[in-house]
Design goal:
The structure holds 2 protein chains of 2 kinds. By secondary structure, chain A is α/β, with parallel strands linked by helices. Chain A has 15 helices and 15 strands. In chain A, the strands form 3 sheets. A 7-stranded mixed beta sheet of chain A has the order 2-3-4-1-5-13-6. In chain A, strand 2 (71-77) and strand 3 form a beta hairpin. Chain A starts with 17 loop residues before the first strand and ends with a helix. In chain B, the strands form 5 sheets. In chain B, strands 2-1-3-4-5 form a 5-stranded mixed beta sheet, with helices on one face. A 4-stranded antiparallel beta sheet of chain B has the order 6-21-20-19, with no helix packed on it. A 4-stranded antiparallel beta sheet of chain B has the order 7-8-9-10, with no helix packed on it. Chain B has 2 domains: 23-147, Rossmann fold, CATH 3.40.50; 158-362, no CATH class. In chain B, a hairpin with a 2-residue loop joins strand 12 (234-237) and strand 13 (240-245). Chain B has helices spanning 10-38, 41-57, 75-91, and strands at 62-69, 95-96, 107-115, 119-127, 139-144, 158-168, 174-178, 187-191, 195-202, 205-213, 226-229, 234-237, 240-245, 251-256, 277-284, 287-293, 302-310, 315-325, 329-334, 340-346, 353-362. The chains are: A alpha/beta, B alpha+beta. At the A-B interface, helix 7 and helix 14 of A face strand 3, strand 4, strand 5, strand 15 and strand 16 of B.
Amino acid sequence: MLAALPARTARRPRYGGTLRVEIDAAIASLDPAVAASTPAESAAKSQIDGLIYDHREADGTFTDDPGSGPFAVTTFEPGKHATLAANNNFREGRPFVDSIEIMMGVSAHDRLLDLQLNKSDLAEIPPQDARSASERGLRISISQPDELLALVFSTTDSAASRNPRLREAVARSIDRAAIVNFILQKTGEPAGGLLPQWSSGTAFLFPTTADPARAKELSSQISPAIKLLLGYDSADPLEQSVAERIAVNAKEAGISMAAQALPKSAAANGHSNASALQHHFDARLTRWRMPSSDPAIALKDALLQISEGSEPTDTGANTGAPTELASPQDIYNRQRDALARFTIVPLVWLPRVYGLSAHVRDWKVPGPGEEWPLADVWLETGTAAGADKQP
Amino acid sequence: MRLPLRPLPTARAALFTVLFVVLLAASSHTTQAQTASALPKSWNDAVARLVDKIAAALSPGPVDLDVESISSLDASYVAAVGAALRHQLQAHSFSIASPNAAAKSAAQLQLTLSESAAEYVWVVQVNNGSADANLLPAMIVSVPKSDFTEAEPSEQSLTLAKQLVWAQPQKFLDFAVLQGSSPRQSLLLVLEATRLVTYQQSGAGWQLFHTAAIPPARIPSRDPEGTINVKDGKISVDGIECVGDPDLMGGLRCNAAKLNNRIETRVKISGLPNSLGTLVQGECRGEPISLYTAEGDWTQKDSIQGFLINLNSFSAATAGDAIQVNGPVIALGQEQDVSAARAIVHNLKSGNHEAYIVTATCSH
């Protein structure tokens, strides 16, 4: 009578349905040869390209045909909308959903609203909104913290470049715990190193607590007083809040600092410090996302990307010869060297936060460098999502 | 160490004290040695490397060692690593200051057991009392997490134990271990969506022996299912049934499978509508034993829990402790003739697909 229990249960995936995705970026072209105009567009485009091409080369390019991946593009309206259809003949098996509808250029506010109204199934939401979204009953999925928000001082022809004490005073004045608790609503963690604890295992060796007494002592040794200009991306409300908070901390330590939005041309260059330099900023906030979970690969990228515009001797990153980072000891030593002169001041680690509708199953938040696993996602009720929207 | 011993005549007291100290020292040494030997070899090697770094940075002398863990390691392993480090420090002519009365001149060593995504990371920070103490960089060693297998839970009325048989990055659908008359004749069959791979026991591992292709499905499935039926010499994969020619270790003759008209009986487990389950051979407390997974989807860690089925009420009650696995159980099937099940787990940490034999033991 009890010879066998069924192997197939509701836990196994089901085929069918349309997954509705909303993104912030407006993608002008899916052609990998056409450059994106902003880092956000580049990141979103990379995710979609990862769905329509089978294999990404080590340098990020694709050599196979579009549509060789799990999905193929069926409609594309530049900057507005794209529809992808499941590829029945995909090498690794047909994706579970029949299609994906991607709405582009949707603001964070509208993405949250549409998730609440069940008008979308998947959308990335700002980390500072994660807590309130969760409290409002939204289903959220949070990655390991893999994006660093850092303050980077320009090291050429600025007050800060000539005064290491000033940089150290600013670094020691910053109350990272307040940034995490109040601005990020506890979604994130203070950063002291260039790699998060989960990746390196040694982040705890880099202090993250503020030392206002030492900051005051250092700033009192600087004469005459210097006024610093801190730049942030005007399109990024998180950067603005953090920049203003840093200016307050600096002022409490006796340092005059003003936070000011970067010109659009400089902000669009993402973490390029060189662009900010041209606009006479002493420092800017920058975001850097880990390209890999591997701490050695990630650190090399961090040193190259974040320290752009810094002196080569600061980090050793611009010497052109990549140094082997074989062990956790090497990785720790390299971070220690890079941070010793306070030209880069890690602030907070941010996770990626995704809002999900109740239908979405088997969504696994992608790790650093990984693509959205939309070929593995399935919908609990095959007709509930897309079919409801059909005219 | 002062103990509340009954007063003894002086000579006997001295003798007893000497014997006690010798025994205590021997006992302590044995315990440390046992603890160190209980660690995996790579862990002992890592501790030795850490001590080499300490010896390169500090002159031999008294040290005070404080151990802290911010890793997921169990407290017993934390203590074992700390003991191994003390033992090796002593072997390098460092003396360990008593925790209660650390010598003022002793260098303070802080051992922190941390971890990264792939490794256990052990860090020693030194404070030797000098002004430039914090200039000494932290000393760091690491060991791969794959070198470590957690101990199984202690015995219960129904005890489950898992044994890792096989792991590979590619997904597979079922597996079977065919025990030979000698270990070298044992075979492992691994059924993938498009082939049946046979491995032969070789030392502690398995060596590729034979591969037989299975015709691909017309439309490749993203969620193929398949089983190995060793008794009948058959395999089935998503609507295709193959018979071994002459047996499963040889070639395969494949045809479209006949419709399965078998009536299956579902045992309802209250609160577990979506879990995978299977019966296993044998009984406990006179009731059949079944194993069920937890309820999460394929993005979550999983567990396998034993249940005893009451045939009168056709209901099931948990028995013993669940065993934890590092990812979803993708398939769970009954083993023939033994009180065990085959489980295929997608390890979310390593990305590997792992084959386990989960044995259910009923202790009386």
